[in-house]
Specification:
6-stranded mixed sheet; alpha/beta; single chain
């Protein structure tokens, strides 16, 4: 068997946002969000279920899964594979938009239901060791919670390092599934339970149409190209920064060493050092 790489955004949408994904998404949300006892998700409606036409085009770098819970609360689930400009602002914007769009003109604000934005990233986002980060509106000095109507939850997959033998909780198992499904060729024993087994069935490439397989591969190619472009931009930036440092060192050495000695110390060409000495 081969399975989709669920870290790719559209595969994530297929597994968790298809018409048959309801029990899968319920288990996933309960595991990752950790609702208080007695407030676990028991029912939900998936908004805009997965369809093949959703795969057309490569402009967007994300696809989200939206669900309305039985109590009226809303959850936006996103798998983000690329750390693109404006990503964090978009998460907050989409959560605020979902919150504000609940009311029709003239309706009372008390009808507003909470919104949770649950985001999984395939890159490190925050400079902490924490796998999960949660954000609420808090008073700046005394950390008094304003309301819990908008909550942002982030899971950074690079920080999840457990292997199959270490999977204990249902949260561990779902994170392992998302991070590793694409490299597995069978369902691990530790994940052989109903909702996760059903997720593997949806992710099984044997169940996909030719059109879906082609679109998924196109998406993979797009992500690989984007990551390559990001890596090159980072390397170019580092190289430019290093060049500036070397030039600054060479300028500081001008009063103390001759041109040949500066060339030997910095690796710059003799012509470059001569230009620096003449103010070029």
């Amino acid at each position: 068997m081969r399975f989709l790489d669920v870290k790719t955004d559209y595969a994530f949408k297929k597994v968790f946002g298809s018409a048959e994904s309801k029990p899968i998404l319920i288990s996933f949300l309960n595991a990752l969000i950790g609702f208080p006892e007695g407030r676990e998700v028991t029912d939900l409606t998936i908004v805009d279920p997965y369809q093949i036409p959703m795969l057309q085009g490569m402009k967007d770098t994300y696809v989200d899964v939206k669900a309305t819970l039985a109590d009226g609360g809303q959850v936006i689930v996103e798998m983000q594979v690329l750390n693109v400009k404006g990503f964090e602002q978009r998460i907050l914007y989409n959560a605020a938009k979902s919150y504000s769009r609940q009311l029709r003109e003239g309706e009372d604000y008390t009808l507003l239901n909470p919104v949770i934005a649950l985001t999984l990233t395939d890159f490190t986002l925050f400079e902490t060791d924490a796998l999960c980060s949660r954000f609420l509106l808090l008073e700046k000095e005394r950390f008094i919670q304003y309301r819990d109507d908008i909550e942002l939850i982030f899971f950074e997959l690079p920080k999840f390092t457990k292997d199959e033998a270490q999977l204990v909780t249902i949260q561990d198992k779902w994170l392992y599934f998302v991070k590793n499904a694409g490299r597995l060729n069978l369902v691990p024993k530790a994940l052989d339970e109903v909702p996760i087994r059903e997720a593997f069935a949806i992710a099984n490439t044997a169940a996909l149409s030719r059109e879906e397989l082609e679109q998924q591969e196109r998406r993979h190619d797009f992500i690989r190209l984007q990551r390559g472009a990001q890596a090159k931009a980072f390397e170019d930036g580092q190289a430019a920064g290093e060049a500036k440092v070397i030039l600054a060192v060479a300028r500081n050495l001008l009063p103390m060493l001759d041109d040949e000695a500066i060339t030997a110390a910095t690796g710059l060409s003799l012509e470059t050092v001569e230009r620096l000495r003449t103010g070029g």
